[in-house]
């Protein structure tokens, strides 16, 4: 007896225009090959409804098809600061949705030229704030930015640890 393998794709932008036209075929083939779960991260506020729709629409083919909501560092140039508010509203609207599993894709990209590091930091920190506020995991985009990302995460871990320590005193 042979046991067929099952696979988890931890990061796939199924809503990318180059995949979208063939999505039914791609997901049918993935299902046939044993892909049980796919995490679909969003990259900009205007896509939030779409990634949710894809995750629900193809859940029969891929039972573990889940999504995250977030603003990707490569999309922050055209993002509006008010998109953080849009994200917060989307988080609240989807907290009960079992297919909504976190904040992403967020991060810092110091590899691509021409991205404003301060603007990247604004959106990254703002989205980490929301992740902490709602106790959600994050999907990170890290390119030549590992030191800055680790610093931001350590800072928050320290804050949380000191908060719990204080709360025990
Ligand atoms: Zn990605």
Structural overview:
By secondary structure, the chain is of the alpha/beta class. The protein has one domain: Metal-dependent hydrolases (TIM Barrel). Helix content is 46%, strand content 19%. It has 6 helices and 5 strands. It has helices at residues 17-20, 23-32, 48-57, 83-94, 117-134, 146-168; strands spanning 7-9, 35-41, 64-69, 100-109, 138-143. The chain has a 5-stranded parallel sheet with strand order 1-2-3-4-5. Helix 3 links the parallel strand 2 (35-41) and strand 3 (64-69). Helix 4 packs parallel to helix 5. The longest helix is centred in the C-terminal third of the chain and has 23 residues, at 146-168. It is globular, with a radius of gyration of 18 Å. The structure holds zinc ion (ZN). Zinc ion binds next to loops.
Brief overview, please?
This protein has 169 residues and is of the alpha/beta class.
Name its key features:
6 helices; binds zinc ion; alpha/beta; 169 residues; TIM Barrel
């Amino acid at each position: 007896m042979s046991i067929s393998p099952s696979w988890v794709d931890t990061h796939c932008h199924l809503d990318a225009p180059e995949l979208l036209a063939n999505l039914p075929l791609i997901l049918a083939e993935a299902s046939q090959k044993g892909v049980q779960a796919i995490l679909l991260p969003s990259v900009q506020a205007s896509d939030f409804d779409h990634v949710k729709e894809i995750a629900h629409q193809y859940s029969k083919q891929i039972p573990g098809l889940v999504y995250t909501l977030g603003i990707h560092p490569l999309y922050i140039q055209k993002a509006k600061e008010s998109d953080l508010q849009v994200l917060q509203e989307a988080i609240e609207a989807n907290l009960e949705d079992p297919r909504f599993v976190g904040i992403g894709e967020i991060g810092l990209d110091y590899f691509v030229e021409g991205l404003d590091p301060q603007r990247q930091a604004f959106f990254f920190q703002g989205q980490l704030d929301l992740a902490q506020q709602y106790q959600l995991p994050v999907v990170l985009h890290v390119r030549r930015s590992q030191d800055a990302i680790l610093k931001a995460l350590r800072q928050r871990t320290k804050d949380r640890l000191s908060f719990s320590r204080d709360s025990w005193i």
